[in-house]
Write a structure and sequence with these properties.
Number of helices: 13
Distance between the termini: 129 Å
Largest sheet: 5 strands, antiparallel
CATH superfamily of the domain at 640-757: Immunoglobulins
Radius of gyration: 62 Å
Protein name: ABC transporter substrate-binding protein
Signal peptide: 1-22
Oligomer: single chain
Keywords: Coiled coil, Membrane, Phosphoprotein, Signal, Transmembrane, Transmembrane helix
CATH topology of the domain at 640-757: Immunoglobulin-like
Domain HTH luxR-type: 916-973
Number of strands: 65
CATH class of the domain at 640-757: Mainly Beta
Pfam families: Y_Y_Y (PF07495)
Amino acid sequence: MTNFIIRLLVLSLFFAPHLSNAQIKKIGVPFITNYNPKTYKAASENWDVIQNSKGMMFFANHFGIMQFDGVRWNIVTQPDNKSMVRSLAIDNKDRIYVGAQGDFGYVVQLPNGQYKYTSLVKLLPASARNFGDVLHTVIYNTEVIFFSTEGIFIYKDNKIKVIQSNAKFDEFFKVNNDIYVSDNAKGLLKLKDGILVPLPESEQFTEMKIRYIFQTKKGLILLTQKNGLFLYKDNQLKIFVTEADYLLKQNQISTGILLPDGYLGIGTRQTGLVILDSEGRMIQHINKQTGLENEYVTNLKTDREGNLWVTMKEGISLIQISSPLSRILDTSNAETKIYCSHIYQNKLYIATDNGLFWLDWQTYKNGKHENMSFQHINGMSENVWNIGVFGNSLLAFEKNGIFEVKGNNAKLIAKTDGAWQGIIIPHHPDLLLVGGYTGLHLLKNINGSWVYQNKIEGFAESSRIIITDKEGNIWIAHGYKGIYKLKFNKNYDAISDIVFYNKADGFPSSLFLNTFKINNEILFGTTKGVYRQDATTKKMIPDPIFKKYLGIENHIRLLKADNQNNIWYVSGENTGKINQKKQGNSDLEELPFRKLRYLYVPGFENIQTTTSGDVFFGTQDGLIHYNSTKNKTYQEKYKAVISEVKCIFPKDSLLYSSRYDVLPSNIELLKEELSSILLYSNNALHFSFASLYYDETEATKYEYWLEGFEPKWSDWSLQTEKEYTNLPENEYIFHVRAKNIYDVVSEEAVFKFEILAPWYRTIWAYILYLILFGILIYTIIKYQKNIAVRDREQLILNQEKELLRNRAELNEQKLAMEQENMAIMKENLETTISLKNAKVASNTVNLIHLNEILLSIKELISQIDKKNDSGTNFSLLTKINRIIDHELQGDKHWNEFEEIFNQLHDNFMQRLKTSFPELTPRDMRLCAYLRMNFNTKEIAPLLGISVRGVEDTRYRIRKKLQLPSDANITAFILNF
């Protein structure tokens, strides 16, 4: 119970500042911002909305829980069964409880921005797990209650109590600190201590189809689906009659909300939102025709700024019910740009670029908005620049001339070359001066009617802005030339004197000058503040009073006093009011009108004030109404948020994001705070940010600062993203803060991150570099030592070389002498060899000759032997023959030949015998003769055999030398 009281106090403090200012205006339609499915890129159906302690908005969408940070929409999580989300609740620790289709649970946000869903259905007994949509989720004391028509599930201390009905439940209501449940059989029940207790005569509620219950001073107000409203007090049920019964009974009530000051917000299925006061009077009816996104309202919730969020079957709308500004909408959509407005005879007139229109202002002001629209004044269908009451006539100044308006018709009373506006000439209430496109025109009031007189001669400039001073001078401002001061002649048909003022007379520029009359003083609007004419020098100087309040930097586009001497202004893009205080002091009121920035028609800024306090602003977006009695707090604190952080390389690697299932698992994030540690390869980052302030979000400006990289904050801009590339290794803090249209600066959001050094700039790399440097120094020293050693060795080597060279020279000289001796010896040897060759050749020739003689003798003896048979002669001849054979086969000459032959032919005989030991001495001799290149005939007598015998011997030698048949034995012997 203590926790509940503390939470209630915290919530009351949290909501108190804005609830007191959330009463919706009765006049006009509040500003509405619509978000359709194409905008938030999710399902069209939305069923609930909540806001966390930071100000972030969450919606129960068909696709899951949808988050909106003022700039971006994201589905952040889904139930485990992927079903639609029907209801949401949030506790003071920002834990979101979720009711879905056939599932319920809770959601918490992780340090990396992701939202994690945990189902609680597992705590239910198996018999209670078959249920449909969880239509309501509420936090009640220390319990969380999930409601479906099949059962009520009360979650506490990780346990769930189930309450079921035999006939199914119909609806569930949390009314202040009480819980009511509508049962199809038992009627209206009240939850007490975990038990449903019927109200007295509860059966009377069984067929009512109650859709919402309000707790008011009058009692309980029950909203039924088709039968309107009922009042239940003191156990009595009565019909609560309202001005909107015809709407509520025909279009089915779907939901409701209790607004401040007892206003009842009622959502319907077919006609949008109806707002009633506590007496049942209709304050507003906001439907699709007046700006709502869709007619089927599913839920209504207010945020901390007092704005009303409307979830619908298709889309979401934000209604700024706390704003003192509202739009006077024309349901016929006839008007466009508004150049002027005026209330005359309880009618509100607006001059537009499509003609002149009127509205029954008194009826509209009393809240009768239904089917009301601006009525077109017949006779004018082009640009109407101005309207005004002159005498008893309402005159309109149009492109084609001057018209008098009566009823729904306009009558052309003077066709001119275009008419801008009219002004009564001082001291002559019957004369009307009209500024035209090419000069001035004069009208005179004759018998109550204005009659055109003449065009004023002597001035042919466009006269859109005209005022008069107390001396009767006419001041005309020409936006592109300067200021004219005119004097009429006595007949008012011509200009008698013209004085022209521009930059040469003290104005900061000749362009965009304007003139106004404030407290009977002539003032001039310039691009650098408000100027006035110095009475002595006649030069234009800054006005000291307006310089104090409006400065000298802005373009003063409009100054206008109201009936309380407050001065309304348009300075630059800002609209404001200088409030006159009783003590003579003044203060500026500007914040309520920030919404009007960029809405005026440039050059045609117009503000209409009334004695009743109504203020009208004519804009490009229609007529806007301001109620000064409605206060709004503009200094609400709010937060800036970092929506997403991602590394550009690798492509779109997210570090922090609430987007559903998008973060990679390999990014290291600190658990204590929003921060990360990144590798050097991730040194290009993209930040997305937003502000949790939902009024005119497109006008919110941002500034950012990357601490550790940038020296200061950036300039304010509308940019909601920032990218950094090639960040060096360092610890960084990214700061961002927002400034809304009311110049309130948000609390800043930060993202801390560290970029690690690349591997080649880590401490280990530097240690390695130190080691390598040491190795390098060592190598250099060693190299230098090696060079010194090498130089020393080279010196020694050179000395040794010199010594060797000297020795070589001596050796060369010695060798030359030896070579000379060798040459002599060679010459002697060659002479000896030549002599031996000659001797061998001579001996060989002599031997051949001798053997031939001996063979011839032997042949003759053979022949003699055949002819002579004498024994004595035979024996003698035989003896001679033997001697010849002995001489032919003798070794005496051969041995001498072999010795010389071996000397000349490198021991040929020995080498041959070694290689071929099967060769006989005769074979060896034949090979020697072949070596000497003797032919067969020359060899036969040397061997003492016939030619045929030489051939046979050659054949045998070939076989012993193992020569093939085609080999030349002579060539082999010569090359051996």
